[in-house]
Amino acid sequence: MANNLTETQNITKELSLLLKIISSKLVDHNQFFNIDWDEFINLAFHHRVYPVLYVKLKELDNPAVPPAVMAKLQASYFENGFNMLKLSSDLEKINRSFSDHQIDSILLKGPILASMLYGDISLRTSKDLDILVNPEHLFEAEEVLLSLGYVSNDERITKRWMLRKKHHISYYHPLTQTRIELHWQMSSRVRGISFKLLWKRRITFSLSGNPINYLSQEDLFIYLIIHGARHGWFRLRWLQDIDQMISNEMVDAEKLKLVYLEYGSEYLGGQALLLCSELYSTKVPQQLFFLINDHRSYKLANSSLFFINKKIDISTISDKNILDAHKKYNCILLSVKQKIWFALDSIYPSYKDYLMLPLPQKLHFLYYPLRPLLWFWRRMKREVI
């Protein structure tokens, strides 16, 4: 798949070696020499691909790999396996409780994704469980989580405000330390896809004999792409998932075309395919080439390579140049419809407005005319500080 991704020339020898190993490409023995192994191991953890890396390196059994590197990967591999088992157990408890209360739910990622794509839950990392529920049952689902001991410190003013400004609520269990994201929208980038439609297309997957609802393979493919694109694909783990879905022939191109009519943003799919082809040498079927008909796919892919090469965590950017690069990325990323949505959404009162001037609920309508003044007030306070 020919492309003009100029950022590929900036890939370091450590990242190049990492990619060849985790994508099961033939590795020249000489590539294992003159490697900064501290940087190599840091890349593996930054990109969250250390479980797969450990298994692949163990198979290669190359004496050039320092024993300390293998020891660290092994310890982290087993720790992740334990964590994934714990998440699986907690998932089954939540799924059973939702089912008992007749709450329709669909798991978005988590241990099932690891099992589906890699055949082993210990080969992928997950820090939390993302669960999508029918918006009509959202507050009943909240009550169930609270009854199971989960707590939330997420900002909220009113239910209406929360449904408008957010797409999920985060929960944390003080004893098990399990984190849950309870979604009523798949993503802030995906609005308008009805839960009923996703529910109709859902598949069921079994963990320990208990059926758990999951996204259809086409919905999953698009969801993973939107999630990765939203974060600039700064972690290779997300691209690894797309590579696995394509390599395992899990996506039906004709069904995908129909589902994309509902989502739009095919150019994000093109971005993912270009990155997989370049970094993983993924053999993209010709039937999926319809996703690569937009120049934005190339621009976005090149920007993501910049983030990958710089080992950037999008959620913690402080460098001005990188912030500017991320702003440009987002400008290309958003469709016209999404830009209009976010422009309109900016008019809606924010949680910062509420913190600055707490008003009783019956006076919340005043936040609309006061919003420009509150914004100006916040700006003045920052400049004084």
From TrEMBL:
> Which domain of life, per UniProt?
Bacteria
InterPro entries, per the entry: NTP_transf_5
Which Pfam families does the protein's record reference?
NTP_transf_5
Stated name of the protein: Renal dipeptidase
